[in-house]
Specification:
The protein is built from 23 helices and 4 strands. It is mostly helical. The strands form 2 sheets. A two-stranded parallel ribbon has the order 1-4. Helix 5 runs antiparallel to helix 6 and helix 10 packs antiparallel against helix 19.
Length: 510
Amino acid sequence: MLVTKKQMKFGTEKPLHAATIEEALTATGFGKYNFGLLLICSWTLQAMGMDLFGTSFVVAAAVCDLELSMQQRALLTATPLIGVVLGAQLWGYVSDTKGRRLTLVLSMSVGFVFAALSSFSPDWKTMAFMKLISSTFTSASNSGAYTLLGESCPERSRGRSMLLCTCSLMCSQAVVAVFAFPILPLEFAYQIDFLGITYRPWRLLALVMSLPCAATACLLQLFHESPKFLLSRGQHDQALEVLKRIYACNTGHGRDSFPVKKLIDETEQTASDEESFLRVLWQQTSALFRPPLLSVTMKLFYLVTIIYMTGSGFILWLPYIMNNLFSMLETGGGAGMNLCTVIRYSTESMTVAGNSTVIQEVCNDTIQPTTLLSAMSYGALASSSNLVLSLTCGSRKRLAMIGIVLLSGISAVLLNLVSSPIAGGVFFFLFLLCALSMGILSVYFVELYPTSLRGMASCLSVMLGRSSAFFGVNAIGYLISANCEATFYGWSALLLSAIVVSWFLPSDKK
C-alpha cells in the first residue's frame, strides 16, 4: 500500500507503509538540506568553470614568462577542453557505478592538486600537462553535480533547482576576472631556484583559481549520496536512511518520524560489480543509442552540439571582440560601422602597434581593463538572466529553450545589420545568452534517462559539447577573419535548426 501525499503531509500514515522513491523524496520536503546541497553543487560547477575558462586569463598574462608563440598560446588555452573530452566517459561510468558524491569528492580533490601545481610550471608544456589532468578530473562535476542535486530533490522543485545551479557556472569566467583585477596588477617577482621559475602574479592567480576545488571537496563531506543511486544499487536500507536524514534536516523532526518505512524498488537493475569495466562501459553507452532512447539521444545530442559550439565557442572570443570594440570607441571612431566592420578595421589598422601593445601589457602582468570588464559584464548578464529563467519558467522547459535560442539567432542577424558599434556589442552579448540553454538541457538529461544511464548520458553529452566547443573556437577564428558577416548569418541558421529540433522534445508538463 502506497503512502499518499495527503497522508505524508498530515502524518496519518501507519508504520511500515511503503512508497516509491519519488513519493519518499516528496515526503522529505524542500528545506535546509536541499538549499545547502544547491549551494555546494553550484560552487562545484563554478570551480570547474574557473578551471576550464579561467585559463585564458592566466595564459594571457604568462606569454612572456613562458615564452609562448601564438600557436602555443592557443593550444594551452584550449587544453582544458581536451581534458573534458578525455574524462567524460570514464566519469560517466564511475558516477553510475560508484556513486555521485564519491565521484565529485575524488574528482575535485585530484583536480585541485594538479590545478595548484600548474601555477609552478617551468614551461608551457608542463603547464599544459597539469591543466589537462586537472580539467580531466574537475570535468566530472558536469554530470555529477547536476545528477546528485536532481536525485536528492522532490520532483516539483527539481528543474528549478538545477537551473539555479547553472547560474554559478554561467558566471565562472566573471569570477576569475574579479580575482584577476586585484592580483594581476601586483608587482612582485620571487625567484624559486630549484624549480627554475620566477613566481609572478599570474602564478598566484592560477593558485587562487584552484582553491574552490579543494573547498567544495571538503564541503561535500557534509552531504549524503543520492538516495536514487543507492536504491538502484539494491541498497534499500542505506537509501531509506539517507531519506530519513534529509527529512530530519529539512523539518527539524526526528528521523524516526519519517512517514515512509519501506521503499518500493521500481528502478531498473544496474550492472553488478563483477562485470568487467569495458563490458559495463559498452552496455551503458550502447543503451543510449538503441530504442526506446535512440530518438531522445539524437535530439538532445544535436542540441548539445549547437548550443556548446555557440555558447562555449564564442565566449572564448569575447575578450578579443570586445577589446577591438572598446579600442575603436576610445579613438572616437566607429560611427556608422557594424561590429564586423569594427573588427576588420581594428585588425587591419593596428596589426603591428596593437600586437606590441598587448605584448608589453602581458609582460607587465596586466590585461586591458576592458577585457576583464567585458567578462564581468557578460557573467552578470548571463547569471541574472539564468536566475530569472529558473524562477519563472518552472516546468515550461521546451518553451524556454525555444525562446532563448530564438533570441540568440535574431541577435546574430541584428549585430550585422545595425550600424552602431555599441548596439553591435549589446547584440553580441544577447547572442552569447544561447549558453543559458545548457541548464535546460541538463534538466532533460536527468528527467529523460533512467538512473543507471543518467551519469553516462550526461558525461557523453559533455564530451560531445566540449568537442563541439573546441571545434567552434578554432573555426570561429578562421571564419571571422575570412568573412565575419557570413559567420554570424551561418550561426543564426544553425540556431534556427536547433529551434526546429527543440520543438520535437517532450511536451512540457504542468
